[in-house]
């Protein structure tokens, strides 16, 4: 008693008991593949050179870290403590009355630990629960002062830090990334005049015109309330029931059934502000504006069969892709474009710009690039940043204002309101990720979890006791655009809101043949999951007003008679200005034809032709691709020339759907192994079915044949065969990979 060492004879250092320190050391002979990191808790991207400054950012001073540095916690070389800072001597054993006796109530260390754990979870977002975020910056190209006084657009080259969160809408927090769904594209700009949140999606329109319908829409698409199925899927009765009775959703359904709902990468999708907003300049003049984000890598998507399989192979597919690209220093980048138009122009349009189910076609009002957004740092902590970030459509800054879009009106209310439940009170703006860089001074006080310590006795305005401070900023502050309103109070819609189909027709007509086919296939799939025939019929009758061709294809796919077209709310709609808009096809933005960050597999097994492996790997990596050697198992394989290659992935843990293309080198023993491996055959079948680029060298064509890939392979676009990996072959392979997909070889049903 009194001798501490005698009181701790029972394995107080559990880790040592298990040889933990040894377990961390590389095993003898192990090849260390990942670059070893200093255990500072920082991510690699923080250490990457910043594009703008060209030098390595010192820890904590990455251009986008800013005020977050103050709260970053790092336990390197520090002892374990309680939340009160008391050092903990034993984190393995609770305090007991005797080794076999009862645990004691006075064990405050145990109780604090368990209590905190019990409260670790917070409610997930009511929609957009699953998301992935990153830090970055926005850079303004040219001053936009003629149009807006928003400070982030004030100067050429001005940098504003941002945090961006991508999301799916319907699935729960732990659901999959590759659901057929809209993707959220929410940007928080930490401007020097306060935070501006542009809370958009990867589709420029919405399902409904009025926020009054939002809870109904969400209740319909979420898992059905009686059995909580299906997870992260719109393919069920209640969703299609609702939209079939809501013809204003027809345009959005086109987008949602298109390949845009299954992006290959967050880095390869567009973003849109959706609503018409206002820009307001220093003189108080205003124009309408639509915001567009265009990805530098181009717009690319998955195909449905692939998305379904990826959701099993890697439910974190898009999250991982974003994380890895940033860690590798391949910073995702978008260009911000704006469409601006006057109120008079808007009045003349065939559609209403306050209707969020309508776009302003680019052919009518061009998109002008005004800046770029680069994501260059992964969060330090998912919960603290990506989960606790609170976006809000009401967060605007001087120079940006709302319009009377009735959907936007509901959003201005909803987001702050939802955070109060989700983040536990009204002070969520003080969470580090949400706190503006601009100073905050007001007379709001108290509430749960208040961080600021307000000094003085004055918390009201006007006051004389604090010299009138904080004082009203007058015209230096946010001044709402004085839009005149003299109207009767009514519940109703403007006249042009009644036209539901012209832009659905426009969207469908603007797609390539394979995109049209995918839209029809998606309707077929989703509606085939609907159990009530009348719902299917209503959707097809609705589609007849958008495209007779589409309606007929879907009806045929569902084995049903073509029902009569749904009666139109507006029988004699205005003539649309634009009937085909090439910009609406994903193919309009192919990227630069390069293969940067694309994941390419090289299949290996014992006896593989080593020189081909190295030639291919070097050339692909030089072109910026991410190369993985994929074997029947991980680990070393002997090459035909007696050397070794080390597979860092197995066909089992990284199936074909996770790669953008595949090369199979020659080597008779290796090919025989792969031919006899059902997984390897399936790997090739998926690569073929999903229209990816395939290269088979020499005898590797046997694997194609074994996979049932047609002997007339030579005629198949994107399917390359060659004797060896010479310069011409490799260049051709890289060129074909740059096309991303070869939809010309797609058939329905799939031939392979
Ligand atoms: Fe919303 C989240 C985008 C209509 C109510 N919404 C949320 C997020 C995005 C959008 C990207 C996730 C933000 C994040 O990453 O944290 N929402 C949109 C777009 C809409 C839209 C582009 C139509 C143009 N939303 C909309 C309406 C309402 C809401 C009409 C309600 C009247 N949205 C919410 C919400 C959420 C949300 C309930 C859930 C979590 C959150 O706000 O923070 O308030």
Automatic annotation (TrEMBL):
MF terms (GO), sorted A to Z: catalase activity; heme binding; metal ion binding
Alphabetical keyword list: Heme, Hydrogen peroxide, Iron, Metal-binding, Oxidoreductase, Peroxidase
Family matches, as Gene3D superfamilies: 1.20.1370.20, 3.40.50.880, Catalase core domain (2.40.180.10)
EC number: 1.11.1.6
Cellular component, GO annotation: cytosol
Biological process annotations from GO: hydrogen peroxide catabolic process; response to oxidative stress
Binding site for heme: 125, 165, 214, 411, 415, 422
Protein's recorded name: Catalase
Organism: Pollutimonas bauzanensis
